[in-house]
Model the fold of this input.
Amino acid sequence: MEDTKVEDEKNVGLLSSGYLESQKIVLPKDIFRNGFTWSCYETFKSLAFRIWLLSWLPVTTWWKMSSNWIYPFLATNLLILCLCFLPLIEMLCRKRALSKLPTQFSKEIIANSPGTDVENWESIAANLNLYMYENKLWKTKYFFYGAWDCQEAFRIAILEPFSLKKDDDSKLKSFKDSVPYIEEALKVYFTEVDKQWKLFDTEKAWEPINLDETQLPKESYQSKFTWVLKRFFSHLFLPLILQCLYTIFITRHSCLLIRISHLGFVLLMYIYFFQNIRGASMKMEHKMQYLSTITNEQETGADGWNQVARRMNMYLFRQKVWKNEEFFFDGIDCQRFFERNFVGLLSSKRVTYSGSLSVELWPYIREAQSSCTDESSA
Done:
């Protein structure tokens, strides 16, 4: 009897996934000109913004009634300063609203079976937008701007917390009990991810690439430093010039050693940032292709990593992830990228600069790591 009740409750919850089946999926990205206008609209509709507007009434009255201008002047400046905190308040409100959504989120995932492809999350985002508005969990029908936001919310609210608590049985039990259907939703999601991995993990899914005609940047540049500087200046030339001029200006009264040290520190920070931005530019399917390429590479040692670097340079250029065929400098750079951006996740389990733990990739990272270990031992 109790099982029947749970099943009926589950079926009722899944009815929301059929809201938009007979309609064209429309998301805020299709309505607003860009993300900025959407953000402004959401802020304008927020309670914090309305309170901020109403606060001008007593301040204006104060200006007219006060004989001393200094106090209303300070209040006006404080009110203007509060405007800068409205986006932060909006972010906290979104986080609070998202914390009430895991159960319905899980139901939608069970019903739609999404994978790592962002397009599979469009119907879920549209359904949840409507669900949150109708159940008064959000003030507008536009909580998720696009499918990508919905996918990231799933990682933040469900995937990563659940995965990180697997090491503690008491925490895991408490987490599953508080959010029904979550375990089934994650099984559905990981099943779809595994299907996509098997597609990437076959040579039939690889694009034909003639590696004999491709060159690594190390064969064209005098050193890796010149390669980094070339990419650095081509992408961040104007910000670099402005930052350098600002550094020279603020240190104009300091000694020469301090000025050179300050300028060198700024340049090193920019280079470090530009080196690390590569991981953030790769989508999940690009990361899966990278891991699959490592797993299926037949060559061993330095030659094997050079082959992986050549293949991925061409692949990422064709996928328009990078503007040229110079994503990796050589095999050593490719290997270090794997160790820092993939293997490092398994040991630290902390969010990196890319903002994601890539939990769905952990089994395939271990597989790629194991293949590298087998090759080195052989």
The chain has a mean pLDDT of 78. Residues 211-377 form one domain. The chain has two domains: 2-38+93-194, 211-377. The radius of gyration is 26 Å.
